[in-house]
Prior knowledge:
Double Stranded RNA Binding Domain, Methane Monooxygenase Hydroxylase, Chain G, domain 1, Alpha-Beta Plaits
Amino acid sequence: MIIYGSVFDIAVKIEKLSDLEKLTLEPGFWDDSPKAQGIMRELTHLRNEVSIWEKVSDRLADTLELAELGDEDLRDELSIEVKTLAKAVDKLEFRTLFDGRYDEDPAILAIHAGAGGTEAQDWAMMLQRMITRWAEANKYRVDVIDQSPGDEAGIKSTLMSIEGEYAYGRLKSERGVHRLVRISPYDASNRRHTSFAKMEVWPDVAEDIEIQVEEKDLRIDRFRASGAGGQHVQKNETAIRITHLPTGVVVTCQNQRSLTQNLEMAMKVLKSQLFDLERRKQEDELAALKGEVVDAGWGNQIRSYVLHPYKMVKDHRTNHEMGNAQAVLDGQLDGFMEAYLRFRVGEGPESG
């Protein structure tokens, strides 16, 4: 028995799953390999989605049958099962909040230290650790594509690839300026400092879309990898910097094993950034037509992390807050992500 709630649109997913499965059986399906691979990825995702819904639905049906027996000895067991099902349904309802076109895709995330030297660079590294802890807790794969170490401590910037279920859909809540207030460990006078760092997040759609990049529009520089880098940093010039001349977008990659791998990764990131740039340009033009003010300025902080004189993390868009600031810095971000997604529901569906 399968119970489908209209709010979850599971019937639509099952119909789409059936259509895609028929499509894979057509002659010549694999003639266009990139397109076929994209369809197979979507097919795998839909199968997982439908399987999850059906398991919960079957479990709910079994629980209802037990309840109908009216056996008093089963009351405690039923009470536990109802609570378990309630949590499962809550998780399923949460999945419906991912209404963006690219929410299911992997993410590319960048962190840039703001003005303030060592303080800001240390804060940027704290944010990198926060995101990495969150990803590890959710069993996501994290790869550092490029990183620029700080002058004395921390990092000036980092670029990471994050793969996992709804990686971009979750991480887009982190896009913006993050503000830290604390007693500086680098100030001998123990004064309070305010530091800023900026996060950027793009959907990793390079394998799913075609972006035409002309060779004449690129400047490609090779250089020797810097920083700690681990055992794979080479003494020869294996690091790559690509500059897209028409837009000024610059991508650096030095953490792969070879020049070829760094070049491939850099091109992948460049295409994702160019795609996101064009997508946002279209969104800004649409917002202007609607009479809305779009401000993506550096000073537009989305969240404050206060460690002194009290401890509190507050998101300024949703007003969601958490008193255990250290837990947030240790990666407990799901509450903030869910609050942001529910906040976005009120603004209507988005394109990405």
